[in-house]
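A student in our group prepared the protein record below, which I am reviewing. This is what I was given:
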Amino acid sequence: MATTVPNTFSNGTNADASQVNANFTAHNTAIDGVAAMTGVVTPAVKMRGSAIIAATEARSNTAYGLMTTPDRVTGIVLPSAGLIIVKYFAYWNETVDGAARAAIFVGANQLKVAQINTAAPAVQEAGCSGAANITQPLSSAWWGLTSGGSAANATGHSAPVTTGQAIAVHNVGGTDQATAFGGGACEIYNLPAGTYDVSVQFKASSGTVNVLNRALYVEAKGY
């Protein structure tokens, strides 16, 4: 975006208030234009944010909702024809096998995904596969959230390394492992311009779902 600054000055010259204000107005207009295109944060426009939560928290509700410390980024400003990009990684377990679910929400709306041979896009969610009380990785992926990992007779882990780790779930085989794998960013389109809260929410049809070592990154990007 090209912007012409209306006044330039050299050493030894003085500027009046209107000239200085004109320079600042042009400068801020240019910065806001770059923010709309690239997602660079300015004081007036919040286009990215994160929620990093190490604590283990639990939820036993049968309807979707937030943990006590929410996996949520608020006030994300989306420009017209923009995308909301969500990256998420956590560890979770469930006290009842097959009961826990997790999903991405934009405001009050659960993320949906197109499916083959269906009348309309369907809500997207991940299940805590494996067995009760076994901690699994939970990751964003291009289609939403995905999970999978150790079964009851395997030893898993519940914390990421501190030297860098992929936002992904990768199962390399074995008869006691789930088949789900994937990762990366989920890019959400077809939203009107506006301000959004983006979250990952949880529910359990019975028992309790426990989540820990959570990292949520949200970005709005204009085109």
About this structure: Residues 1-5, 174-179 have pLDDT under 50 and may be disordered. The first helix runs from residue 17 to 38. The chain has two domains: 1-44, 48-221.
